[in-house]
Amino acid sequence: MVKLIRWAAPTPHSYRTLDQVVDDLWRSGWSNPARYNTDTARPMLRPAMDVTQNEAGVTIRMDLPGLTAEDVSVEVHGDLLTISGEIKAAEEREGAQYHVRERCAGAFKRSLRLGDTVDLEHIEATFENGVLTLAVPVRPEAQPKRIEVRTA
Asked: Domain limits at 71?
């Protein structure tokens, strides 16, 4: 005999499994409490960042649209490079009603542990068109050396 189950119209949340709900909570900050600003209890922003490396050193590029060089702080403590700042909220116009609001405001902080081969004294930072670029050179003694092979 087949057991019949009463059909109910699906709701927007009925398709989400408990695993999906837990994953969403985990990604939203439970997995990393450091993603929250302890002063405001708001989520920390995470601007997009690219890190590349070649023989000359490491290049870090971070998208920070709407900011200026004065809004960004770059610090080195030991081998930890930290980039931080705050994206200010856009001025709200009196009487304006938002239909879509996707631009975020708040503090951000990104840290990278640099290896012992980089030259921390000669890091260069430039800010152009909303992109922060850091050039972190490799110490001369840590750069690869080509050894000539001679015939006997």
From this structure: 37-91+104-142
Residue 150 included in any domain: no
Cα angle 25, 31, 32 (rounded to 5 degrees) comes to 120
Which portions of the chain are predicted below pLDDT 50? Answer: 1, 30-34
**Rounded distance between C-alpha atoms, residue 130 and residue 87, angstroms:** 12
Total count of residues recorded for the chain: 152
Mean pLDDT of the chain: 79
Contact 119, 137 (CB under 8 A): yes
Residue 42 included in any domain: yes
Residue tagged 């050193």 (tokens): 57
**pLDDT, tens only, 22-35:** 666 656 554 444 45
The residues, any chain, with a CB within 8 Å of residue 115's CB and separated by 6 or more, are 79
Determine the Cα–Cα distance for residues 124 and 41; give it in Å rounded to an integer: 33
Structure tokens at 45: 């922003």
CATH number at residue 82: 2.60.40.790
